[in-house]
Structure formats: structure tokens, C-alpha cells
Design goal:
The protein is an all-alpha fold. The protein has a single domain, classed as Farnesyl Diphosphate Synthase (Orthogonal Bundle). Helix content is about 75%, strand content about 0%. It contains 17 helices and two strands. It has a two-stranded antiparallel sheet. Strand 1 and strand 2 form a beta hairpin. The radius of gyration is 20 Å and the shape is globular. It starts with a helix and ends with a helix.
């Protein structure tokens, strides 16, 4: 991500300053929880994409910094709510907010971040940007519910799973890219190209999260290995294994997925099955294919440092280790 970080150095400093400003509240707990989560090691992928797409679209104003902050606020709000739903105790290697302050505080501060995001967007004055981000937020909520009703569903196929990922994760990344284009006033067709770039990239990014959940240890990845499985989440590595495994292996998987807590033996069985049927390799390959499709959507934009940085970020999505 070196190109992107170098190109966006000043803008990212501005985004961090905007976080502090937008967290201003007379309620101390809101600031404490918000600052804790925002400072807990996130890579700012969504803000970086918005900033780069705005530059690619020729935007030279200053509204991109505030909107980059908004997309990270929305993302952070979903993380606070996700950790409550998942009963998570770790987030990016640190204790999750709900583990420190409790579920009630996490949900309510998440609500504050959502509300604050829309307040900032309305002040920005662009109905088109407000619609893009509000539509994305609505779809994210639908994705969360879709994932919930798909818990422990071993009949979940890849197509239906992509629908979950598109709504839950990829739509905000796509909207961040699209908003950059809207700021630049580049027209519907090119705004849609940026949106599609973000959508393919967002799905690829989640696929890599799926793979890393089974292969990265806690110290490296910042959450417990096999956490998705323990929560009953059927993700792409497991979907691939289920496509190829025997009926006996499927029955054993069904028993494990339904367990309240996984033993090392249970997790080992699932990981060995995923290895046997190359679930991780398949997931990585699908992510690479999506990244290459994403890059094609930028063909209509001139080559330059912004486009190179976007390609670098796309490659990072599939090469990262955590």
C-alpha cells in the first residue's frame, strides 16, 4: 500500500483529525468507545478508496476528507454491532469494545456513529452522495440479517453466499468509490465504473477474510482462529469443501457446526477437510479473479499515480496476511 499511503499522506492526517472532531460529544462514553474502536488498527481501506477515486475523478476540493471520515464511521458502527451479534471478545488483536464496556454501550455508540454519519452527509449538501451512502447502509443491514438466517446452513451455495457478502461488506466499499466519482462530477457511466470496481474488490476482500479465518493465528490476524465456524458462519472455504466431501464427512461437519463451543479436535477436523478439498486455495483464486475483474472497470480512466495506487490497493486485498 506504499503508493497509496504516500499519495494520501496529508489527506489521511486530515481524516484522522476529522474523526476526533466528529466524535465530539458531551457524553464521555461515546468519545471513549468511538476513539478506542477507531484507533484499534484499522487500515482505512474505505477512506483511502474514496480519497483515491476522488483524485482519479479530478476532484480538487476539500469535501473528500469529511466524506472519507463518514464511510469509516459507518464501517466502525457495523463493527460495533457485529461484535455484539457474534459475541466477539477480540477485534484486530485487541479486546473488543463490547468485551470492555458491554453490549449495551457498543450498540448505542454504534447507533451514535450511524446518526452522526448522516448528520455530516446532510450538511454536505449533496443528495446524490446521501443516496449512495444511505442505500449502501440499508443493504448492509439486509446483509447482516441474511447472514443471520444463513447461520449453520450447510446448503448455502456460493451464489447465495456472494449475495450475503455483496450486501454485508462490498456495498460500502463500492459506495466509497462511487462517492469519489460523484465529487469529481464525471458522469453516470464512470461513476458506475468506480462503483463496480469497488464491488468486485469488496467481495474479494471478504473472500480473503474468509480464508485467513482458517489459516492465520490470533497473534497475526487479531481474532481467534476458526471464529467464523464457531459462530455458525458458512463461508467460501467451507462451501468449497462441502461441494466435494463425502456424505459421511458432511454429516460430521453438520454436527460440528451446531456445537456451542468447538474443541481443538473439532476445529482440526474442519481445517483438515478444507485443506483436503483445497478450500483455501479455491477462495484465494476466486479473490484474485475478482480483483482482475475490478481492474478492468478502471480502463476508461487515464493512467497515473491515482490509478496505480488503486491497483496496488486491489492487489493488497488478495496478498495480505491479516
Amino acid at each position: 500500500m506504499e503508493k497509496a499511503l504516500e499519495l494520501l499522506h496529508d489527506d489521511l492526517i486530515g481524516v484522522e483529525a476529522q474523526f476526533k472532531k466528529d466524535l465530539t460529544s458531551e457524553v464521555l462514553l461515546i468519545r471513549k468507545v468511538g476513539e478506542y474502536v477507531l484507533a484499534s488498527g484499522g487500515k482505512r481501506i474505505r477512506p483511502m478508496l474514496l480519497l483515491l477515486c476522488a483524485r482519479l475523478a479530478g476532484y480538487r476540493g476539500d469535501k473528500h476528507v469529511g466524506l472519507a471520515s463518514v464511510v469509516e464511521f459507518i464501517h466502525t458502527a457495523t463493527l460495533l454491532h457485529d461484535d455484539v451479534v457474534d459475541s466477539a471478545v477480540l477485534r484486530r488483536g485487541n479486546a473488543s469494545a463490547n468485551a470492555i464496556w458491554g453490549n449495551e454501550a457498543s450498540v448505542l455508540v454504534g447507533d451514535f456513529l450511524f446518526a452522526k454519519s448522516f448528520s455530516i452527509m446532510v450538511r454536505g449538501g449533496s443528495l446524490k452522495i446521501l443516496q449512495a451512502l444511505s442505500d449502501a447502509t440499508t443493504m448492509m443491514a439486509e446483509g447482516e440479517v441474511l447472514q443471520l438466517v444463513s447461520t449453520c446452513d450447510l446448503d448455502l451455495d456460493e451464489e447465495r453466499y456472494i449475495s450475503v457478502v455483496r450486501n454485508k461488506t462490498a456495498v460500502l466499499i463500492a459506495a466509497a468509490c462511487e462517492v469519489g466519482g460523484i465529487l469529481g462530477g464525471i458522469g453516470e457511466a464512470r461513476e458506475k465504473a468506480l462503483h463496480e470496481f469497488g464491488m468486485e474488490l469488496g467481495i474479494a476482500f471478504q473472500f480473503m477474510d474468509d480464508a485467513l479465518d482458517y489459516v492465520a493465528d490470533q497473534a497475526e490476524f487479531g481474532k481467534v482462529k476458526g471464529h467464523d465456524l464457531e459462530e455458525g458462519k458458512v463461508t467460501l472455504p467451507l462451501i468449497q469443501a462441502l461441494r466435494k466431501c463425502s456424505e459421511e464427512e458432511r454429516e460430521r461437519l453438520a454436527e460440528i457446526v451446531e456445537l456451542e463451543a468447538l474443541s481443538d479436535e473439532d476445529l482440526g477436523y474442519v481445517v483438515s477437510l478444507i485443506d483436503r478439498y483445497d478450500g483455501i486455495g479455491y477462495t484465494r483464486q476466486r479473490a484474485r479473479e475478482l480483483v482482475e475483474k475490478a481492474k478492468v472497470h478502471l480502463a476508461g480512466f487515464a493512467d497515473g499515480p491515482e490509478k496505480a495506487a488503486l491497483f496496488e490497493l486491489a492487489d493488497y486485498a488478495v496478498n495480505r496476511r491479516k
